[in-house]
Write a structure and sequence with these properties.
The structure is a homotetramer of 297-residue chains.
Chain A: E1 6-10, H1 16-25, E2 29-33, H2 37-45, E3 49-50, H3 54-58, E4 63-66, H4 71-79, H5 84-87, E5 93-96, H6 102-113, E6 118-121, E7 124-125, H7 127-132, E8 136-142, H8 144-155, E9 158-165, H9 169-197, H10 202-210, H11 217-228, H12 237-254, H13 259-276, H14 284-291
Parallel strand pairs in A: 1-2, 1-4, 2-3, 4-5, 5-6, 8-9
Antiparallel strand pairs in A: 6-8, 7-8
Domain 6-phosphogluconate dehydrogenase NADP-binding (chains A, B, C, D): 6-165
Protein name (chains A, B, C, D): 2-hydroxy-3-oxopropionate reductase
Domain 3-hydroxyisobutyrate dehydrogenase-like NAD-binding (chains A, B, C, D): 168-286
């Protein structure tokens, strides 16, 4: 077991709250802050502490973790007035676990370094269930020494924890993950409509496909959604739409061509425009059905 | 062990020859025919028999298996002058294991039925190694009773043997397999260039990606090719190009939209036009490098 | 005025009938054949002659013109049993004005040459109105001398008559025409939905767009269809769907990449799958509306 | 002739400088500001006036025109510290003629309105030559009354001046223009490679294509570039790359699907990544050549 650390945790939403609680359970001194007092209360009830502001939360922290929805929130919480950087001392380690663009993580890292503050970008995958059960995958960008220091904390939150490169690299890998997942779902959806239109026994076909080179985690986990047209999330198309924006922007920033990724980004956007935003991303199947002139149930 | 059957095997190429030999090993009476006498000799040496023509090969056969390169060969060998249908009696079971369009399989099935001949379409995946080791996946279209009768023969050739629907259904599933594989490779290639351009540690990134929802058999098996830029086949882009033609034609025939499949078909064609046809299909990575202005080694 | 020629005209459909009549009007001796006696009667009423079979129509002809729906009809009418090649003498000039794949035109040219028969492929654009008013564009592939000989006949049918290369070149240019038209319509449709979603005055916007580098014949001629959602054909999506099949096959045959053409081919197919086949091709707008989650009227 | 107005002109680059001079020539009192003193001197030499800062330039102006490279510059110059809004009085009319995202124009309009300042967004097309010769197309968003007031000024700068809707509408139409132009160029490039690969006489083919429904201003103006592989700008791919970013962001913001636009945005980015950024946008042809495995000269 690692030594207990003094941690400030800012952003106690669907993901942040169970993560903060898991850090408490691992023996750390965790002070939580969120705009929702109820979320703070949950952390306190688990044995943690509450704060009235970011300044209050971070003032004695060795490590600050932020977990907020998108780029503007990260900029506000870390770089903004009354934010983390204004209120921590040199040497503090700030770990942003939000999923945002690599460019913003790089900007945050640079601003922090100018004040002697260290940062890691450490987005996660695995969803709410992964957060609660502490089995997240965590992709970390930043300095190797800072990663080593933070590793015990990450181990309290997830099971796959990998240092993948410098500032922003965690975000880049998270973006690549979302790119691959969206495209793997889309092509599975195209295959399903093709197979059904041709009168094939879909369940049998997916079994044989899953056993060969066409097999994938997407096929394993989303097969039932597609067979049953059952699209309760899971991971919402609205969120994947946000992520495809990050992917295409980030790829553009580094000059990488995404001919297929760009098409799928449009199809995810189309799903959302058709009202499928709250459904699981396997509902990309509905878009292929619409394109193929089929009734969408 | 199943009862010994009298089998004619037409088409003893890279795939057909080891398959015929495996049927001999399983105790069947196999008469092989091919334009290459050397291939026939191999089957004879394994304990089978040779024939001087299709007519000669099929004259006493209970089951005829064909394994030839493409649609025109199937049409010539089964429907053509001096072909299988002209030389077999009513009740014979003709199993075409070539990878062709579902439309041609349907046409063959119809022509055979008019003569009282039964057919199955039973394309395979797994490549030369799978054929030699008798671990192919076999996707079978046709009547359930005919499938049941042929099942013991298929079991001598592969480990995953699935009846997926009526005439042509085997070909449709094979086409869907190639569609999914090509797209999964392409998006992995896009992700690799994106990750490298962004300065990420690629090996570490692929490890973490493989462990989550982005994981796939393609990622597992093709990761090393991409990391090392080592593209010895494997499955050649030339063959995948042929298969993408089948997929797009077949999807068009049944009114299924393949927005992503169509783009990837162009990228496979582009790879071939750039001289990458003889390389493994993981060399789609080279196309993304070209699009991204990178030097292609 | 050119010398009168003895012409056999095979295929008197929506396009062929008025073309045959225009050749009669230009002073030629035209013998028409079609499966519809009514169509033959129209040509006779205009001063032409009728025939009871292809053989009958072509037996004394100096020039044979064919105008049929698709590749299989051209193969049957020219190469098939009882077809043109069986019934004409060496030296006859056979002009196929159907819109088919360049590959079939090349095949026809080769088969004819073996019998000493000369061919041109000469597909047209301009539609039924262009055929009636003799203002077609005619794109001609074949030998220059044969083109020169046929030029006076073409001038009786159209106003833009161009020799564009060897056998099949006329079809290739026709295919390129359909490619450009489909894509120009599609992007105009994307722009229209984008402009409307953004609350722009569409009519004013299309006026200014038409006056600059974004201007096109498609914009001029299809603007009203899009503004008024009025999609009476015009040129039907069903026909453009056939043509996109020709384009993608022909490009594949010569190793040309069509990344955008391939996507648009899918969108044309999608329009057809959604029941828009009988509408004018400007109805690709409806597909963009569906993708954008808008009500399609 | 319209009444003389007191105009501040901020941003005297390739476009802004000749535009400011044209306003001087039209009899207006023009005070120019730019970071380049040489540019200011040119305006002064033409009969205008110079200023030492934005504050200095706008202090007595009735109308302020801004013409800067991109969104951040507009935000800095109009909304930033020491910028236009801080230094003008209520009632001033601020016309931003830069090409930026509609979203930023909307934001600028809102911020201005809160201070009683009126705005128009009025991007142009027509390039440097159009600016010098005062033949620009000007697409204007904002209030009708403000457009009416500004109309005489626009008439001194261009020949096509259209009010297309509320705040941001001018930018939206400019974005749509760039979308259509890029796609029309791309499909022309695909057609060119297809035609050449098939052995067609390209010049003859483009003539006949230009005369029919495939005709476009792009075909007319860019034909020579493509025939001669002569890609001196013209309009640089680097700039079109910026514009495709605006288009895709803006379409995303209003929920419009751009399946073809998104692919072309990738191909423009690819051209840039391959070093073609400084070439005319007709050099998208080089990308199709690369995809088709042809030597690119």
């Amino acid at each position: 077991m690692s030594a207990s650390r003094k941690i400030a945790f800012v952003g106690l939403g669907i993901m942040g709250k169970p993560m903060a609680v898991n850090l408490v359970k691992a023996g750390h001194h965790v002070t939580g802050f969120d705009l929702s007092q109820a979320s703070i209360d949950t952390v306190v009830a688990a044995g943690g502490h509450g704060a009235a502001s970011i300044a209050d939360a971070v003032k004695d922290a060795e490590v600050v973790i932020t977990m907020v929805p998108a780029d503007p929130h990260v900029e506000a919480v870390i770089l903004g007035e009354g934010g983390v950087l204004e209120n921590v001392g040199a040497g503090t380690l700030v770990i942003d676990m939000s999923s945002i663009t690599p460019q913003t993580s790089i900007k945050v890292g640079k601003a922090a370094r100018e004040k002697g503050v260290r940062t890691l970008d450490a987005p996660v995958s695995g969803g709410e269930a992964g957060a609660i059960e502490a089995v997240l995958s965590i992709m970390v960008g930043g300095e190797a020494a800072d990663f080593a220091e933070a590793k015990p904390l990450f181990d309290a939150l997830g099971t796959t924890v990998v240092h993948v490169g410098p500032d922003g690299a965690g975000q880049t890998v998270k973006a690549a993950n979302q790119l691959i997942v969206a495209v793997n779902i889309q092509v599975l959806a195209e295959a399903v409509v093709f197979l059904e239109n041709a009168g094939v026994d879909l369940a049998a076909a997916l079994d044989v496909l899953g056993g060969g080179l066409a097999g994938s985690t997407v096929l394993n986990r989303k097969k039932a959604n597609m067979l049953n047209r059952e699209f309760a999330p899971g991971f919402r198309i609205d969120l994947h739409h946000k992520d495809m924006g990050i992917v295409t922007d980030a790829a553009r920033a580094v000059g990488a061509a995404l001919p297929v990724g760009a098409v799928v980004a449009q199809l995810v956007a189309s799903a959302r425009a058709n009202g499928d935003g709250p459904l699981d991303h396997s509902a990309l199947l509905r878009g292929v059905e619409r394109l193929s002139g089929r009734e969408v149930k």
